[in-house]
Amino acid sequence: MISSSFRDCQAWSAEGLILSTSSNEACKMYDAVLTQYVKWRNDDSLGGIEGCVSAVQAADPNFVMGHVISTGMELVATTSSTRLDERLSSAVRRTVELANSQDITSRERLHVKAMELFSHGNFPKACEVWEDILLDHPTDMLALKFAHDTYFYMGAQMPMRDSVARVLPHWKPHMPLSSYLKGLYSFGLLETRFYDQAEKVAMEGLALTPDDAWSVHSVAHVCEMKAELDKGLKFMESREKDWEVSDMLASHNYWHWALYFIEKRQHEAALQIYDTQVFRRCKASGAMLDIVDACSLLYRLEMDGVCVKERWQELLQVTRPHTDDHVTLFNDLHFLMVSLGAKESGTSRRLLEGLQELAKEPGDNQQHQLAGTVGIPMCQAMLEYNQGNYSQAVELLYPLRYRMVDIGGSDAQRDLFNQLLIHAAMKSENKHHQKLGRCLLVERDAMRPNSPLTHRLMQKALALHD
């Protein structure tokens, strides 16, 4: 891919997406960054996203949308908090100052506003602003993708689906990146349980772009949610060469592959994926998606009776520096899994106390507002479970069953907390809880027939409480 294939000032204007810069190079490099973000892939021939961000800033240091895309992507990655990271918070301020000192389009102004709202943790308002942009500019891929990712962090499943559905008719096949809308739409469909339609749309995306890792990821989810394990294993293996090149999503797709193995109780195969792919990649990339996947794999394996204690210690080195971030509750819960697994009670306590402190005066931060009612009780339930206080864990988790969606992530990722509740209920001394555990398993079986994990747990529940 050479820079001549990217859009210059004129090309962006022709699409009705004017960029306020006179530098064609800045426009092309902006396009290069956007393209890699959408493809989940650093293109080494361009110097990756970092190289292209540097090239944008070299071409025009005052190009507002250049700052919006680079700072916005860093914020949306949730790897650092503007509360603690002075460099990141000053990058946000600089973007706002640049926007205020220039004559830019109203669309660009809205982009700056949305980015600033996100930086304060005001996810719902940021999404409203991106949707405002999409009303007038339905082909603004940056607004669409930022909104998509942020809805995901809020567990806003229907808005995530509908946001893409609304703009689809405006995208024509000749437009750059248009085929990637299939993967985005498919993901919204599957998170709202339209599994067959989600699979169909994802396969349409893959017919157009075989290396679209997000469409692959959608199919992986469908197989997971329907417990079609052999189909999922075959699919991931047959397309591995296509999706493993998407360095920003490869680890997550390997994570899905490992889930099939855990479901089938092939623990060695799951551990091998953890060691050779997921942990190796998360250590190298430091990307949050890679980190939380590593946390969740170990927690699931441990719940399923596998000893992973040395691995907890190694992973703690990656998660511990994020203990005070508190960017999303989803991340916090995953860091807590590691400090509990590694028996680092000081780190666990620090994480929980930090969250309690922020929940007292959350301001506009949507995640901190939710901490008191959802995030903190979920953390406490994990602590109780870890200490063998199973009935307390049930008392904390059970009332939150239908609110857990608010911590964000996908149904597949949050399923770990459903499993935790079932394990706690089964292990509780309380007869009422034991009955609840069996009821939850019946319900799980109705939603995902043929799940070997469900059947194993049912047999275990019967054996335990005969």
Automatic annotation (TrEMBL):
<keyword id="KW-0677">Repeat</keyword>
<keyword id="KW-0802">TPR repeat</keyword>
<dbReference type="InterPro" id="IPR011990">
    <property type="entry name" value="TPR-like_helical_dom_sf"/>
</dbReference>
<comment type="similarity">
    <text>Belongs to the TTC38 family.</text>
</comment>
<protein>
    <recommendedName>
        <fullName>Tetratricopeptide repeat protein 38</fullName>
    </recommendedName>
</protein>
<dbReference type="InterPro" id="IPR033891">
    <property type="entry name" value="TTC38"/>
</dbReference>
